[in-house]
Amino acid sequence: MDDHQQPPSTMTSDNTLPIAIIHRLPRFKLPSPWAKDIFNPIEPSDPLYPIHRPSARIIIIIGPSPLKSEHLDHYPSVECVFGTSAGVDHIDLAECRRRNIRVTSAGSAFSEDGADYAIGLLMDVLRRVSAADRFVRAGLWPVKGDYPLGNKFGGKRVGIVGLGNIGTLVAKRLEAFGCTIAYTSRTKKSQVPYAFYPSVIDLATTSDSLIVCCALSDRTHHIINRDVMTALGKKGVIVNIGRGALVDEKELVKFLVGGELGGAGLDVFENEPEVPKELFVLDNVVLSPHKAILTPESFDNVRDVVMANVMAFFSNKPLVSEIDLSDLS
Amino acid sequence: MDDHQQPPSTMTSDNTLPIAIIHRLPRFKLPSPWAKDIFNPIEPSDPLYPIHRPSARIIIIIGPSPLKSEHLDHYPSVECVFGTSAGVDHIDLAECRRRNIRVTSAGSAFSEDGADYAIGLLMDVLRRVSAADRFVRAGLWPVKGDYPLGNKFGGKRVGIVGLGNIGTLVAKRLEAFGCTIAYTSRTKKSQVPYAFYPSVIDLATTSDSLIVCCALSDRTHHIINRDVMTALGKKGVIVNIGRGALVDEKELVKFLVGGELGGAGLDVFENEPEVPKELFVLDNVVLSPHKAILTPESFDNVRDVVMANVMAFFSNKPLVSEIDLSDLS
After folding, report:
1. In chain A, N or C terminus with fewer CB closer than 10 Å?
2. Are residues A180 and A32 in the same domain?
3. How far away is chain B from the Cα of A73, in angstroms, using its nearest Cα?
4. Is the Cβ pair A137, B294 closer than 8 Å?
5. Residues of B that are catalytic
6. Chain A residue closest in CA terms to B137
7. pLDDT tens digit string along A59-69?
8. What CATH number is given to the structural domain containing B262?
9. Euclidean distance between CA atoms B220 and B240, whole angstroms
10. Are residues B205 and B314 in the same domain?
11. Range in A7-16, B72-81, B177-186, B259-268 with the lowest mean pLDDT
12. Is there a domain that residue A12 lies in?
């Protein structure tokens, strides 16, 4: 990505704010307040859009709105695409590379919240927090007496699938609970004290629970498949805060309904917002509407990251959270 | 407690197992397996109970079954009472002291689980895990769209009320989430890096959330009162895993219903198993049926602690988790 067109070193050449095309599905709303003193956001519905479309140099994608080749065709001058999600699987990266368009993600803006939530989901499944809350709200405590015991969280063996920004923070948290941590990822990380397993199945075999927090790609699609679930075993718990398609959902439902897995904490699903209804009746499952990384505080963080990236772009400085497109498989 | 009658240095003088009176409410069941090779458990329903009652030297209390003066009247030879709960507020300690009866608790057997659960409840309230699970199970995700955001957990200011076995482990966990930790307790702990506030109100004023995990006594009854809730403020969250009566429950309900508190995660209540029904409709509240410290693993731990105490008692060695009765206020 060294051959992209160099932008001028000032924000704009004519003392007006640079144009940023806002690309979003209707359900992903523009954050408010948005830093309008740094760029001028233009949506396709804007009367000025036809004027600015041909010359716009940057696109800001709100949430995981898909950005495909046919979208890019509308923007012949675009040089950089700024994502506001932790993942970039909604962006056609190969097409961006082909067109010499740079891409940024939200970087680590969401990482703390994602890691926090992963711990929350695992705790909730093991200790049955949500299920016990249902039990109390249904008025069953005085009627049925003690709620069935859950399982201990502290000291358990937890396997992390994907030791990136979020996975690393998950591990840090698990350490404080006395958990034994292992991980799988494309390559062994140096300076990481946790056991590395190149094979997810081997990781599952030696873990009580798996936390899935890797990026979705062709390589990681259904990385948690039937064989991994079998290796994890009847008491094993799967937490997924990555993307739905990292887990073979049909198999997962079969394993859970058949009692072949201990439980699951799922923030993401293969066909969101659809969730397999078979899971609605299970007390060893916690279901969450793709919100692991979403707090008011993380929205502030991501806005800061986007602003920093935009300012770096127009100042011809290194981008804060650029995706390495030379690495596409 | 130096003047109690010294037991013989062998387990029993006649090579039979020592008798242990089992004292329990019917709803607290005898754990199974129980180490019958160490003592001979006798319940009042046992045909041999009348024979052993006058000479029994130890009582084992199952769960928080109340042990009062009138119970002790039945056991003129009792020297030591072994609790199986983390707290000992169900035992008439003053009466035990008067009769020169030693008392043990479950010590730290439950501490890890208690600390884990406290983190789980706080996470659940802040990030709305249980409420979001209800939202998904009700089929509302495809209908209503995004679930309202919760609040960030990591990095927040958390005040710990009672820095004992559990509180210390809570603090250790919170550190990994980047939280700022402060505490109140009867006295400042040396070698603890957290800010100490002698006053609960001052602690509440400088905290985003409070985790209540102190013992219940006359001194701590309703330690979380109206003034503390006011000091904590509209966004403040209270987690209680100690005893229900540590919190003024009527005031808490008023504050929550009136939107004067951010939320609450409650494992304990003033009139268990009754839970104020006003709370059943609140999404910023997580309700749990007094199970913070209960896992199969912690039951194993507590059995080990009781056994160690019993063996120490009959071997005339220091008890593992003796309560200091000289400290009664």
Report:
1. C
2. no
3. 30
4. no
5. 243, 272, 290
6. A280
7. 999 988 999 99
8. 3.40.50.720
9. 13
10. no
11. A7-16
12. no
Q: Is residue A8 part of a domain?
A: no
Q: What is the 3-state secondary structure (H, E, C) of B12-26?
A: CCCCCCCEEEEECCC
The answer for residues whose C-beta is within 8 angstroms of residue B279's C-beta and 6 or more apart is B253, B256, B264, B266, B285, B287
Domain contains A123: yes
pLDDT one-digit tens code per residue, B47-60: 999 999 999 999 99
| The residue type at A95 | E
* Residues A24, A172 within the same domain: no
Longest dimension (CA), chain A: 74
CA distances from residue A36 to A17, A104, B138 in whole angstroms, order as listed: 9, 20, 39
What residue type is B104 in one-letter code? T
Model confidence at B254, pLDDT cuts 50, 70, 90, reads very high
Domain region containing B247: 111-287
Q: How many domains, in total, are found in chain A?
A: 2
* Residue B125 shares a structural domain with residue B245: yes
State whether A167 and A103 are in the same domain.
Answer: no
* Contact call for A120 and B116, based on CB within 8 A: no
Residue A210 lies in a domain: yes
Residues of B in contact with A137 (CB under 8 A): 280, 287
Whether A291 sits inside 8 A of B146 (CB atoms) is yes
Pair (B203, B132) in one structural domain: yes
Q: Are the C-beta atoms of residues A73 and A290 closer than 8 Å to each other?
A: no
Residues belonging to chain B: 329
- Do residues A20 and A56 make contact, with C-beta atoms less than 8 angstroms apart? yes
B177 contacts on A by Cβ (under 8 Å): 112, 116, 173, 176
3-state secondary structure of B209: strand
Handedness of CA B120, B157, B257, B246 (dihedral sign): positive
Contact B116 A153 (CB under 8 A): yes
Quote the Cα angle for B314-B317-B318, to 5°. Answer: 120
Q: Which segments of chain A have a pLDDT < 50?
A: 1-15
B140 and B172 fall within a common domain: yes
User: Which residue in the block uniquely carries the two structure tokens 């030791």?
Assistant: A163
**What whole-number distance in Å separates Cα of residue B290 and Cα of residue B284?**
19
Q: Is the dihedral of CA B235, A118, A171, B212 positive or negative?
A: positive
Q: Are A106 and A309 in contact (CB under 8 A)?
A: no
Q: Considering only alpha carbons, which residue of chain A is nearest residue B125? A: A120
What is the SS3 assignment for B240? strand
Residue B182 clears pLDDT 70, i.e. is over it: yes
Q: Do both A92 and A123 map to the same domain? A: no
Q: Which residues touch B232 (CB under 8 Å, ≥6 apart)?
A: B204, B205, B207, B209, B210, B238, B261
Gap from A238 CA to chain B (nearest CA, Å): 16
Under DSSP, the state recorded for A8 is P
Which one has a higher pLDDT value, A4 or B293? B293
- Do the chains contact at A145 and B27, CB–CB below 8 Å? yes
ipTM: 0.85
Give the model's pLDDT for residue B35: 63
